[in-house]
Amino acid sequence: MSKKWVSGTLVGILASSAMLAGCSGGKETPPQAGAGSGGSGDGSANAKPVEVSVWTGYPELDPWFKKMAEEYKKTKPNVTIQVSSFPLRDYEKKVAAAIPAKNAADIVPMSPNLALRYIQGGLLQAAPDDIGQQIGSGMYDKIIVDKTKVDNKTYGVPFIKGAGAIFYNKDMLKEAGLAEPPASVDQFLEYAQKLAKKDASGNLEKAGMSLRLSGGGSGVGEKFWNILAQRGGSIVKEISPGKFKADYNTEAGYQTLKMYVDMVHKYKTDDPKLKHDTEAFQTGLAAFYIRESNVIMDTKTKAPNLNYGTAPLKANVISLVNYYVGGTDKAKAEASWDFLRFLTKPENQKSMVSMSGWLTPRSDLDMSDVYKDFPQYQGFFAKQDLQMYPDLPEFDEILTKFADKLATKGFTDASFVDQPEKMKAFLNEAAKETNDILKKAGHLAE
């Protein structure tokens, strides 16, 4: 665990959310009534000391939080922020135990889906009116705004966004005679075939496209979903308000599975035995793959000489983490929201991106100055069709079980090659399990 006392940390938390927005072209947050009128947000020498605690599951953001805390302290010397960061899985367990027991930090970032149960239980506070108005002012895409609200009331402040882009090795593309990265999902197989490297015996040495073929949890399913989204598909589809059905046992789902099968078993442009994902890309063992923006900063450290670029996807499955404020202490709550206002300033949002690699959820910022130092970020700020996790408590179970079927059968069965009926039967069987889970939860569209 990383633990530090810093007055601007809380700021850091909001800054994250704001940071995602941060840009010289963004809108400034209007002053909050009461924030500078002698209350906990007053920075005068006579203001009562206030201590605000912040927990996060993102230790890589610690340097940014420290910077934000120091800058905020200059304007609010009476406020001290205690920031503690934990490995993400440990953080999730800690939050799950602490919020119901009412001994969590004052500011706790989490996904909107997870926060829903705590909001419904009255354990998280609604945001002040000015914050809700700012969030809905055009700073964020509607899909983001919707995920900050419950029953039309704002509770969350957008913190960080996860999204994918195509990472490609420029030298490997040039060697293969390819002037540009793949422009659409329809070119993925073609590029993978041209870029894969095999030895004299035909054994694969370098993957064309590195696929997520295995791994714990729902990650396999998420990566499949992002490729599926390029064809307009999803994991589940809302048929009527609150009612869903599986949406991958379709032509789009079949074409997506077929691409995996053809790459692994027919044309052998990827192999489960090879290194995969970011390690493969950074070491030159894969020509391109789809991954989130935090790879940019990781590559700066681990492969600083790698000649690579990014290209946007047509569609994106994005994840969102919001800041939430809990507790019942009025002074702490006022200070917490004030920190979050500070963090949403454009310059703080951009600072978060350039220091951590995480994306700001804001869509109104001019990021050109960030692009000068890190041109790879441009692949993440294109206009796209967006999808997010649906508001279903059972969705993680759905995605995890589907991922397990893909990893143990869908991607490993070589008999699927050139057998469309077998692949469609596999998808129908998986979709039945998805629909059974939805039915048990009362969310199946029948």
Automatic annotation (TrEMBL):
The keyword Repeat belongs to this UniProt entry's keyword annotation: no
Keyword terms of this UniProt record: Cell membrane, Lipoprotein, Membrane, Palmitate, Signal
Region (Disordered): 25-46
Superkingdom in the source lineage: Bacteria
Keyword Signal: yes
Organism per entry: Paenibacillus piri
Signal sequence annotation: 1-21
Listed PROSITE patterns: PROKAR_LIPOPROTEIN
InterPro entries associated with the record: Bact_solute-bd_prot1, SBP
The protein's name: Extracellular solute-binding protein
